[in-house]
Amino acid sequence: MQWIKETFGSYKPIIAMCHLRALPGDPYFDLGGGMDKVVELARQDLHGLQDGGVDAVMFSNEFSLPYLTKVRPETVASMARVIGELRSEIKIPFGVNVLWDPIASIDLAVATGAKFIREIMTGVYASDFGLWNTNVGETVRHKMELGAKDLKMLFNIVPEASKYLADRDIVDIAKSTVFNNRPDALCVSGLTAGAETDSGVLTRVKQAVPETAVFCNTGCRLETIERQLSIADGAVVGTTFKVDGKFDNLVDPVRVKAFMEKVKSFRGQHQKFK
Predict the structure, then answer these.
(1) Is the whole model's pTM more than 0.85, yes or no?
(2) CA atoms within 13 A on the CB side of 195
(3) C-alpha dihedral sign at 49, 53, 54, 56
(4) What PANTHER family does UniProt report for this protein, alphabetically (predicted)?
(5) Which of 4, 30, 124, 170 counts the highest number of beta carbons within 10 A?
């Protein structure tokens, strides 16, 4: 898993979420503030995360609630504008996640120069968004057709607000996902953004696919991150970096710095890179 070090420049990296506010076409888009406000708030969050010492940042349309499983063109265009305006200010590796559309995520990554995407790329689910299907063969072929062979693919195998349509054990899912799809990493999540990932589930997945990177995908907190990183190869962190640890708020630089100080202390005690 040398690719982790090469991509993020760190052992057990922390990928911080830069949650974009509702965009044009979204039900809760701020017509008064417009795209200028979306860009400015994203800029504020980006600098709070970078200055706090995170290893990478991932831009997502987190406030495009309720989500679509096939997004509209205006969503990708709006996200590209935000990243384009901030591009010269991004000093760390970055990725993108267009919820919940892997094809759109790849398109955005290629357009902006992102190093990785995270998405639901496999499985069929009963979800809050209706019957949720995927086509990983089409997704990976699309990536290769666009010449993005080096784009890292983080497969979320425990989608939020949904359940596998068939009754499958998480170990079986992890093993078959790795065998059939060759993901760069598997992401293990809780029920929703900010909901803690079950350490038992995280352990079972990592033990099932020891040669594949496994990231803790939701609910990482100051008091739990050492335990989670003792199992996982990295973590995706969003809500805990926000003011009062609340999803709707902006990033709190003080919380980011305190969190990353603990992470760096942990990494200092576990230097061997696997």
Answers:
(1) yes
(2) 11
(3) positive
(4) SGC REGION PROTEIN SGCQ-RELATED, ZGC:162297
(5) 4
**Looking at this protein, which amino acid is placed at residue 30?**
D
DSSP letter for 33, please: T
Domains of the chain: 2-267 (3.20.20.390)
- CA dist list (Å): 197 to 47, 171, 215: 27, 15, 10
Per DSSP, what are the bridge partners of residue 154? 118, 185
**Residue of 224 and 272 predicted with greater confidence:** 224
Run of H or E residues at 237: strand 234-237
Cα–Cα distance measured from residue 57 to residue 138, given in angstroms and rounded to the nearest whole number: 26
Give the separation between CA 248 and CA 201, rounded to whole angstroms. Answer: 27
Q: How far is CA 233 from CA 193, 203, 247, 250, in A?
A: 19, 11, 24, 27
Residue 229 has pLDDT above 80, yes or no: yes
**Residue 48 in contact with residue 251, Cβ under 8 Å?**
yes
176 token code pair: 């078959």
**Mean of the per-residue pLDDT values for the chain?**
95
Structure tokens at 43: 């800029």
pLDDT of residue 274: 43
Tallying the residues shown for the chain, one arrives at 274
